[in-house]
From TrEMBL:
InterPro entries: AAA_dom, Bact_polysacc_biosynth/exp, P-loop_NTPase, Wzc-like_C. Its EC number is 2.7.10.2. It holds the Pfam family AAA_31. GO terms for molecular function: ATP binding; non-membrane spanning protein tyrosine kinase activity. This is non-specific protein-tyrosine kinase. It comes from Acidiphilium multivorum (strain DSM 11245 / JCM 8867 / NBRC 100883 / AIU 301).
């Protein structure tokens, strides 16, 4: 036998959602709950939508195009702004800033609008029902600003310089006015900022120009003083006189050096140069004589080839040639003397010019040293004069530059009154509610199925308890019984579904190894239908001609007196206590319509010593004697948790049948009951599901739900 721990371990949650088909069956079993949830959520959403006022959203569009200042115009005053994502995000934040929102509230007087002031709104139906201590307080300024800010939506499309300004309100005209007011407030703010930048730039440049003019006046005074001190006078060419003189002397010196070089070259050619150089040097003066000398020399050579040395023409030619050469030598000497004189004169002039140039340069250097402070002052004056001119131009440009006074953005599409509401989006909300309702309905059905800790099929009993489920007895309603008790109904209508399940129970007991001669019927809790099952089983077995005895062992709440009309006759406790014989304790009810009924032993008088009676060997001897007299003894035991005697009585029987109410008895309760029964070491023949709701079980999708399917209706008749 299993121990109590093993009995508890046998009870497992039967997962019905591991297979998608099982999940569908679970939804089918709880279809009412699924439909209620699936329809309830859309209906609630529809009701909520009917109470909601439509809202309208108006949208205007700004183009953000910041002024591109010329860096040369305002260098160091205003920087050129490049449009970046961060800059666009900052502009969107400015549009929702408290200053812009406050201007919208003041301009449209939103504080007096019923949409934003609860004090001006009509009280709700619940408020009118419950009453109110007084009118609601006006909205606080901060709360009003937050409420208006929440209605604004600023959108900056990625990669663009557009800003979409939207405002949502119940009044479409108010939505358009608020969006346009926000854009106008933003542009006014930008214009004020641009004017402020312009004013700051003009003030700064004016201060700089004034300071530059003061420095220029001071430089003019310093230049005049320096000129008076140094005595510097500027020439016609805007250069000092010493520099002009040095230039002239330098030219003269160059010419003198050229003459000296030419004279020296002539002397060198005449004195020690080659004949060609000498001839070139004196050619202009003695060229005719040189030509005559060449002729006489040629003539002499010609005569010498034909005549003798004493030939008169030869001697005359020689004399003429000698005289001519003397003239040439005399002329050459004269030329050399003249060239020497010219070279000496040129050398003296060069020396003189060098000395004069050195003196002029000394004077020029001294004058430059004296004029350096003046030059520096003049350079500073020129720079300051240029700066003052540029600053004056900048100031004039700022005053005339109208582009600086426009804002960095402009409206390209003003918000117009919307014709269609933007919310609530009824179609989307209802579609989502329907979809969500279906999902929640399925989840609710699956959750209800998983949280249902009872047994709803014989397969669950077999799998969880490892016990055979011998029958699924249907619930027979009062209208169906037509005033009969359930046992009488089973006896009078032997082809009903209930009677068929009693026969299935008999078959299961008979097919089991070692069919029991006595059977104890018990349950975990009252109201499980154990008495109905015990009596109906006894009636069914007796109807077949077998000898059957049914004993009411529930001594605290006996029920056989009412079922069989015994009227307080002696029974089980009376016989065990020795107050009645066995024949006196067994009764045979009267049968109105013929047939056979089982013998009945009622519970007898309530005895305080009932536990001692059941623990004595009298109970064992009684059961042994009854086994000899009857084919089957059925014991209707009290619930396991009600009386401790249930365990002793169950042990006295050959087998025990546990009744479990379909869809009601928790599995943990059944497990605890099995643990108590296991302590007595008794034999569990099986279990039976009682009070089964046939129509619901037929829709459950369990394998044994076929028992109650309408297709089997032809097998059962009333």
């Amino acid at each position: 036998m299993d121990t109590a721990a093993n009995a508890r371990d046998r009870v497992r949650q039967i997962g019905g959602t591991a297979d998608p088909i099982d999940a569908l069956r679970a939804v089918r079993r709880h279809w009412r709950l699924a439909v209620l949830v699936a329809l309830g959520l859309p209906l609630l959403s529809l009701g909520a939508l009917s109470r909601m006022r439509p809202v309208y959203t108006a949208t205007g569009t700004l183009l953000y195009n910041p002024v591109d200042f010329n860096p040369k115009l305002l260098r160091g005053v205003v920087e050129t702004r490049q449009v970046t994502d961060a800059l666009m995000a900052s502009q969107a934040a400015i549009l929702k800033s408290p200053a812009v929102v406050a201007r919208v509230i003041d301009g449209l007087d939103l504080g007096a609008s019923p949409e934003f002031d609860p004090a001006r709104q009509r009280p709700s139906l619940l408020r009118r029902w419950l009453g109110s201590a007084g009118p609601p307080l006006p909205v606080a300024p901060d709360a009003l600003r937050d409420a208006v800010t929440a209605r604004f939506h600023i959108d900056v499309p990625a990669g663009s310089q557009l800003i979409n300004v939207s405002f949502t309100a119940h009044d479409p005209a108010l939505a358009a006015r608020a969006a346009n007011a926000a854009m106008a407030a933003y542009l006014a703010r930008e214009r004020r900022e641009s004017l402020a930048v312009l004013d700051r730039a003009q003030a700064w440049l004016g201060q700089r120009a004034k300071a530059t003019a003061h420095r220029l006046e001071a430089l003019d005074v310093a230049i005049a003083r320096e000129r008076a001190r140094s005595g510097t006078v500027r020439g016609a060419g805007a250069a000092p006189l010493t520099n002009e003189e040095a230039g002239q002397l330098t030219g003269s010196l160059a010419a003198a050096r050229a003459d000296l070089a030419a004279a020296r070259a002539r002397l060198a050619a005449l004195n020690g140069g080659s004949e060609a150089e000498a001839a070139a040097a004196v050619a202009p003066e003695i060229a005719p004589m040189r030509a005559r000398e060449a002729e006489l020399a040629a003539k002499l050579r010609a005569l010498g080839s034909t005549e003798g040395p004493n030939y008169p023409d030869i001697r005359a030619t020689k004399r003429a040639l000698a005289a001519l050469r003397g003239q040439i030598a005399a002329e050459t000497g004269r030329l050399i003397t003249a060239d020497r004189m010219r070279a000496a004169a040129a050398a003296a002039r060069v020396k003189s010019l060098k000395a004069e140039l050195a003196a002029v340069r000394d004077r020029a250097a001294a004058q430059s040293v004296r004029a350096a402070p003046l030059a520096r002052l003049e350079e500073e004056r020129t720079a300051e004069s240029d700066l003052l001119r540029a600053q004056t131009e900048q100031i004039g440009t700022l005053e005339s530059h109208s582009a600086l006074t426009r804002p960095d953005a402009r409206i390209i599409a003003a918000a117009t009154r919307p014709l269609q509401p933007s919310g609530p989006r009824s179609a989307a909300i209802l579609s989502g509610a329907v979809l969500l309702g279906l999902c929640l309905g399925v989840l609710a059905a699956l959750l209800a199925d998983s949280l249902n800790g009872s047994f709803r099929s014989g397969g669950q009993v077999r799998e969880a308890l490892e016990l055979p489920c011998m029958a699924l007895l249907p619930e027979v309603g009062r209208r169906e019984r037509r005033g009969l008790s359930v046992p009488d109904y089973a006896r009078r209508y032997p082809f009903s579904a209930f009677a068929e399940q009693i026969r299935a129970l008999r078959t299961g007991l008979w097919l089991a190894p070692g069919a029991p001669r006595s059977l104890a019927v018990t349950a975990a809790r009252p109201g499980e239908g154990k008495t109905t099952l015990a009596v109906s089983l006894a009636l069914s077995v007796a109807a077949s001609g077998a000898r059957v005895l049914v004993i009411d062992c529930d001594i605290r709440q006996p029920s056989f007196d009412m079922i069989f009309g015994l009227g307080g006759l002696p029974g089980l406790t009376d016989h065990l206590a020795g107050r009645a014989t066995l024949e006196a304790a067994i009764h045979r009810p009267a049968l109105e319509e013929g047939g056979s009924l089982p013998d009945v032993m009622p519970a007898g008088a309530v005895a305080t010593e009932a536990l001692a009676l059941f623990m004595s060997d009298r109970l064992g001897r009684l059961m042994a004697e009854l086994h000899g007299r009857y084919d089957l003894v059925v014991l209707d035991l009290p619930p396991v948790f009600a009386l401790a005697e249930a365990q002793l009585l169950a042990r006295a029987a050959a087998a025990t049948l546990l009744c479990i109410r379909w869809g009601q008895t928790p599995r943990r309760t059944v497990a605890a009951a099995l643990a108590l029964l296991d302590q007595g070491g008794l034999r569990l023949a099986g279990a039976a599901l009682t009070r089964v709701d046939g129509p619901r079980h037929a829709r459950s999708g369990f394998p044994d739900s076929e028992l109650y399917h309408p297709r089997y209706g032809g097998y059962f008749r009333l």
